[in-house]
Amino acid sequence: MTSVTPAAPASAVDSDPRSSVRHRVFVVGAGIMGSGIAAQAALAGYAVTLEDVSEELAARGRRLVEEALDGVVQRGKLAPSAREEGLRNLDVAIGLRRADSAEIIVEAAPESLELKKRLFAEIESVASPQAILATNTSSLPITSIAAAVRDPGRVVGLHFFNPVLAMPLVELIPGARTRPEVTEAARAFATDLGKRVVTSRDTPGFVTSRALAVLGNEAVWMLYEGTASRDDIDAAYKLGFRHPMGPLELLDLVGLDTALAILDILWDGFKDTKYRACPLLRTMVAAGKLGRKTGEGFYTHPTTPSVAGGTA
Ligand code: NAD
After folding, report:
1. Which of 138, 167, 172, 212 gets mutated to test ligand 1 (max ligand atoms within 8 A of its CB)?
2. CB 58 near ligand 1, within 6 Å
3. Distance in Å, CA 28 to ligand 1 centroid
4. Calpha distance 74→116 (Å, rounded)
5. Are 216 and 188 contacting, i.e. CB atoms less than 8 angstroms apart?
6. Atom 15 of ligand 1, residue of closest alpha carbon
7. In this structure, which residue's CA is closest to atom 10 in ligand 1?
8. Per-residue model confidence as pLDDT tens digits over 42-98
9. Among 16, 52, 98, 130, whose CB has the most other CB atoms within 10 angstroms?
10. Does ligand 1 have an atom closer than 6 angstroms to the CB of 255?
C-alpha cells in the first residue's frame, strides 16, 4: 500500500520541493472525481494535495490517480516520464489542515448539501483569505453551499466530468454572490487544465446533470417496466443515438448513489415529476449496488474502483 505523507507543518511549506510549481491546489475528497481532478491538475504542473478523511481513503485516492495516469499512458496519450512528473506533483493528506497554503481548493465530497455546507465552513476556517473555493457539485445550488461561509463571494461551481482525464468539458457556475474575479480565476484554472468551459446559471443540475438525470432515469424506468432488457436499452442508445456508452453503463460509471442524489436535488429544486427517481434506482442504492465503485450496479465490475476506465 502506498504510504500517506503526514501533514506538513506550516513552516515546512517554503522548503516544499514543489514550491517552484505555479499554484497549489487542494482537493477535498479522494473518490472518483477528486482523484481525477487531482490527476489532471498534477499533470498540468500544479502542486496538488489530495485529501480524504482517513489514511486508507487517502491512500486509495493516490492509487486511483496512479491508475488514471496508467490508463492514459497505455492509450499512448501520455509519456511515462510525464506520468512520473505528474505523480511528483501529488501529495495526499488526511483532514483539511494543509488547505492553508492552497490558492485553489476544489471540493469533491459526496453530493449532500448538509455535508458540503459543513465542509465549506471548515475549509474557510483553514484557507487563506485569497483562496478560491470551488465545488465539483453536479447539481446542488452554489448559492446554497456558499451561504455556509463568511465570504460567499469566493465560492464558485467548477463541475468536472467523469473520467476527468478523458472528458474535455467543465461547467462553470457562479453563485448569486460570486465575485467576477473569482469566476474568471476558476475559468482560467479549468482552461489551463485543457478543458472547454461552459457557463451555466445557478439552477439545480445546471445544464449537464439536468439533461443526464432525465436520460438515465428514463432508462431505469424502462428496465423496471420491462420495456426492454438491460443490454437492449444500452444498445439502443449507443447504436440509435451514437452515444459512446449506454445509459445504464453510464449510471454504473457515475455511481448510482450520486445519480439518485442528483435526481432528488432536481425534484427538490423544481418539484417537477419528470425528476421522480425510479424505485428500482432507489432500491439498488439501498442495497449498496452503486456501480463500478462497489463492483455491482446494472453490471458487475472488477472490485477495484477505477477512474480510468470510462469512455463517456
Ligand atoms: P465518491 O463517493 O467517489 O467520492 C467522495 C469522496 O469524498 C470519498 O472518498 C469520501 O471518503 C470523501 N469524503 C466524504 N466525506 C468527506 C469529508 N468530510 N471530507 C473529505 N472527504 C470526504 O464521489 P464522487 O463520484 O467522486 O463525487 C464527488 C462529487 O463530485 C459529488 O458532488 C458529485 O455529485 C460530483 N460529481 C460526480 C461525478 C461522477 O460521475 N461520479 C461527475 C461529476 C461530478
Report:
1. 138
2. no
3. 9
4. 35
5. no
6. 109
7. 29
8. 999 999 999 999 999 999 999 999 999 999 999 999 999 999 999 999 999 999 999
9. 52
10. yes
pTM of structure: 0.87
User: What residue ranges define each of the domains in the chain, with the CATH number in brackets?
Assistant: 18-199 (3.40.50.720), 208-286 (1.10.1040.50)
Beta carbon of 108 within 6 Å of any ligand 1 atom:
yes
Q: Which residue has a Cα nearest atom 1 of ligand 1? A: 31
Question: Nine-digit cell at 49?
Answer: 494535495
> Atom of ligand 1 at shortest distance to CA of 255?
41
Helix extents (H) in the chain: 32-43, 55-74, 80-88, 113-126, 142-146, 180-192, 208-225, 230-241, 247-254, 256-270, 279-286
Distance CA 271, CA 37 (A): 32
Torsion sign, CA atoms 87, 184, 167, 63: positive
Q: Decide the pairing of beta strands 90-94 and 169-174.
A: unpaired
- For the stretch 225-243, pLDDT in tens is 999 999 999 999 999 999 9
What is the number of other CB atoms lying within 10 angstroms of the CB of residue 73?
Answer: 14
